[in-house]
Amino acid sequence: MIDTAASLSRFKRKTPRRVIWKRQGLAFLFLAPGLILFLLMIWYPTVQTVLFSFQNVGLTGSKGWVGLNNFDRMFGDPQFIIAWRNSIVFVLLSLIMGLAVPIVLALMINEMRRFASVFQLIVYLPALIPSAVGLLIWRLIYQPEQTGILNSMLKLVGLPPQLWLSDPNLAKPLIIVIMTWLSAGGSTLIYLSALREIPVEFLEAAELDGFSPFQRVWYVVLPLISSRIQIMLVLQIIIVAQVFTEPFILTQGGPASATMTPVLEIYNAAFVNSDFGLASAWSVSMLVVLSIFSVIYVWLRREDTGMN
Amino acid sequence: MSSANRGIMSDIEWRSPTGRIIVGGCLLLLLLVSVIVFFPYFFSFTAGLKTSLEIVRPGLHLFPDKANWNNFIEAWNRFKMIRIFQNSVIAAGGGVIGQIIVSSMMAYSLSRLNPKGKKVIFASILVSMAVPGIAFLIPRYVFMTNVPILHISALNQWWGLWIPYAVSPFMILVLKNAFDNIPKDLFDAAQVDGASEARMFLTFALPLTSSLIIVLGMIAFVGLWGDFLWPYLILRNGDLQTVPVRLYTLTRSFGQNLFMASSFIAMIPPTIAAIFLSRRIRGGLTF
To answer: How high is the ipTM of this complex?
Structure first.
């Protein structure tokens, strides 16, 4: 009797501990593949970028610490200011030309009763095309010679031919036009689903109070989807500041560095000149600037992800 | 769907003269947008039908004099389209499978198994979603082309794409939310019947979220299908290159007409995917 009681109490004491550890082991077994990949592919390389920026790194790995040498060379390069200014102009242009397009498209599609799903599909089509393929086609459309289709159209209405992407003033806005063509569809679908979540009562009440349709958009609809607009805005800043594929395929940074961007500089430093240290210094400059927006992004999403 | 009966305008307004003007204006604008959307499709299709002389002839020729359907067959053969589609399917498919396995396991653990430091892990996943890709590109490339200890290189290897592709903070967060929403009673009942966690994961959690996983997998697949920079760096061998990389490297190898024909062919699979996905994208799917 005493024996059983003793073994029972031991059993009671031991079991919960063992079960918890077993469960913890299981929990981390499930987590392990993901944690290892995150560590190797994101967290460790991000830290290493900072370390690399203070080292001389070539194809064969690090050749020792060089202090601030990489940063001296980066700041001393006249391209530094040019590339960053271009990046800022790209972001501003994309906010002016790109941000409103999906919102307006979503508002218009939302009012189409019968054809809503057709237009929804049409605007979404380019969003799934590999951007490189879309860019290669646009490059031919923008051809500067007499054979270019846009120049032929201009000639038809009596306007002089343009150099398009070879014109330093036109190159940036034209790239933003393509970026909008490529990405507006995805954002439109997101705004459309936000519009469809707006309670009908709000719109009915505003209508009864005498708000015109446009006033309803301005005073009811836009404030209600403003949290989504904010998230898209920050996301757009982070993405456009890192613009690479578009200038890489369309202009290689030209004409006259008009479309040179920091990421293009990083690409050239690393994969043309094998100067990974300098490339890392550039990456650190991007990391510093963009982390501000990353923090804002995470903060804006804190409710969607249950992190309070 | 609340918009079934009204949008921003009510039904009565919609039929009023002002309403009709607004709707008509929207319709016109949307038709114009549709023209702009379709223009590159139209351009690459018609340019693909032209002869190599016709395509460089000055002046506006929207349509070819005579449709050379052979161009598409020639482009298909000379660009080895079967091979590059195959490569893209292997690259993106392997990435998606890895993403689903890794993300669902991680999401299940975070949702049901209460690992110690859950909050920290969750927060770091969220933060990595906002880390700009350029921040880790260089060391990742150095690491993958000369993996420490193992001394192997990912150049021209499928795993060189699959391993980074398997990391998806977005999919983890969406799946965690989905697992959180499965009624707890289901798991409790299964537990009483003596089912192990692995069993519950495979027979409850995954099947119950399978339709979401399919949509997530498709979004991921199309995204990886279009990835450019990483496969461009890793796949140096032309026989392994994916659709966007191969088309880029072959830009000047064949005539413009053949190039446009192959580009048009390359746009067909994503277009089919768009038809399937356009009605299934919801606000919650956009981290």
So the answer is: 0.87
